[in-house]
Amino acid sequence: MLTSLLISFALIIAALTFAPFNVAAGPLDSPGAQKALVCSACHGFAGNSPGNTVPIIAGMAPNYFKKAIKDYSEGKRPSPEMEPYSKYVLQAGLDEVADYFAVQPRQPAKTK
Amino acid sequence: MKDGGVAVMTVPPVAYRCPPGPYERASLIAWYLQTKKAKSKLIVLDANKDIVSKTGLFKAVFKDYSNLDYRPSQKVEKIDVGTKEVTTETGDKVKYDVINLIPPQRAAAIAVEADLVGGDKRWCEVDHVTYESVKQKNIHVVGDSTIGLPVPKSGNVANAMGKICATAVVHLLNGKEPPVIAPGNTCYSWVNDKEAIAVVNSYKIENGKVVQIEQKLTPGKSVITAQNSLAWRTSIWNDVLG
What we know:
heterodimer; A: about 110 residues; B: about 240 residues; alpha/beta; 2 domains; four-stranded parallel sheet; three-stranded antiparallel sheet; 12 strands
């Protein structure tokens, strides 16, 4: 049973691998979106955090975003959560991540 | 369990899912007993030499609980449910009224049957960028089942791996080079009914391998950290479940 399932799965993968793809760019195709994937566990998809103590960063001005990240990374803005992640953003590409969040539509949160 | 009883819980040898999980559970059981059944106590039998995660923070928390008896290097070898007694590797016998036995762990049976696990027959080694199994081409493994990355088996890491892997698979299906994205770890542990502690890790990819950038612990238990954990919970459940 398992073997047949695995063979079926492998055939599907093979079919998809060799099928011609001709699709438009999706919402996650920009480098900034991909680098911001790890942010969404706390800040929500595309920066629209539904949690009460986590800020919405969708639509945030890039200069403000960049200053906040730098301040977190230097400990000027103490946060055990954000200090490591700010260093990740600096390493991954501050400009790209800032530009990505800046153009995301800000959506009202249900729980705030 | 009657007041005055003995609760026993065990911690399996590494690697297991959610490294701080057993110590968080021990803290909350001890808090409950201290609050509701003050004559009772909790004995923690840890198969490991020391507290595995958030070590300093949990040691400080355990000092709050005089009813918590933490015993390292006490791997459970045998349990007799008739006499309600466990025997450890060192031959110590411990009587209990209530027991929470956490067994040794490995990846799910499907991973073993599909020959994805390594020589230890427990966990799956994967490529650090695509999460493709090193043993079986075109099969990708994410989450707790993986081994070899310097990341904990946490829900936050599994969430990140899922998104990174999905992105990589889409790129591979389109014949493109997958993007190089590192996961992240945010992990909260409640230690009583109001306070929590946390550890946060950030990572980068270096020469195709996940490497830690930084690990940060909260200074101690706090209400603010507990509140942040509730916001994190709301966000990640929404992220996973929609």
